[in-house]
């Protein structure tokens, strides 16, 4: 018997260009990464939603390989209330700042399949 | 039903390291574990026949307690293979105290070994199926360094912590290591050298990161009553506490606050002491940011003040609060799971057996283990006879 497979559901939705996450009707939490139970209230009915893709950089580390260009690894807080690891593209790694507003898109050619990446979104939040 | 009263009910009666550093390609993790076990039991005046409780964790070995029991020829009636990364052994100490106090075993052996350094390049590392799908791997973080780097960057952003503050931690550890003949790296180190070293995952440089060494360790625990008949001065467990809130760094609620806030609260409450009563601190310094975060979360300074707190050599030899007097994971030894070594050092400091690096008058020592990516946090408070 095949049951609910949240990781498969996530990757399928990502493949269509959406930024999927789950929501809990019990406590109204946003849930990410995907799972079969709400980590806040224990409810087992989670609904899929599509993020608008806007978020704020919570932290950043730039990795400098010896033989390749530096690249940023960021944690982004999405406006819907969940956090994910990602990267910021299209600007130099050293220009990415904590507090910067970023917008998601799906990179269909990620190293292990589709992945969410972010680009700078104009203004920065004066976040402390 | 309430927990048994663990304060002073059990004691550490033997500790030992195995050969440390780089032991060469023909030796195995289990041999280092067994070498340490033999030495710790000898110090305790016991042997493998006395061991009826076995506590161990070895990275990459799911059935480490079975391997170690067979190798040593022990037949435990109580076994605990709790694997919460580098915090496992301080967790084992807590569990051993519970097991001894409730009669599940009499003599507990906590044991660890690793040939992390000698393994590099000989392809011994196992790769099994992932336990969970990874939502981080696609971004190529250099784990575990990047996890700690993200915490450091956030701490710097929120509190004005600087790379110089981080460097103070590395320099203090090195100064302690210079006093420890067993430390892997003992040459002088300056703040400028740390600042000038290669950035691996910003803001952390190679000198903000722990060593990769080989090494094993063992700790023998028994009831306070039995401990009094054994050769070494008993070092009592006064309090212990455990907590974990996440595994992957992207799920850590606030990267500047660890579950050490909760594990230490439990440990202090059980011990009936606070940070002001602690004479010496041995904590898990896999990266320089760890020391700053843990000094805050263990209550030695306020949140955000860790950078200033470690400045000016305050945690170095001669400073007001000696921290990681063996040289820590940064300069003494780090075989991948460091947590048994702060326990060994805390025991030696209380016994007054730490040689050139001995602090005067240590009667209460705090030892803290960390596992995963600032994930599992375990605190133990140890004391000498006079603290009972
Ligand atoms: Zn819920």
TrEMBL record, chain A:
Residues annotated as domain ChsH2 rubredoxin-like zinc ribbon: 14-46
Region (Disordered) location: 108-128
Residues in coiled coil: none
SUPFAM superfamilies: Nucleic acid-binding proteins
InterPro entries hit by this protein: ChsH2_C, ChsH2_Znr, NA-bd_OB-fold, Thioester_dehydratase-like
Pfam families reported for this sequence: OB_ChsH2_C, zf-ChsH2
ChsH2 C-terminal OB-fold domain span: 48-106
Protein name in the entry: DNA-binding protein
UniProtKB/TrEMBL annotation, chain B:
PANTHER family: ACETYL-COA C-ACETYLTRANSFERASE, NON-SPECIFIC LIPID-TRANSFER PROTEIN-LIKE 2
Protein name: Acetyl-CoA acetyltransferase
Domain of life: Bacteria
Domain Thiolase C-terminal: 241-383
Xref: CDD domains: SCP-x_thiolase
Gene3D superfamilies with a match to the protein in the record: 3.40.47.10
Entry keyword set: Transferase
Organism: Streptosporangium album
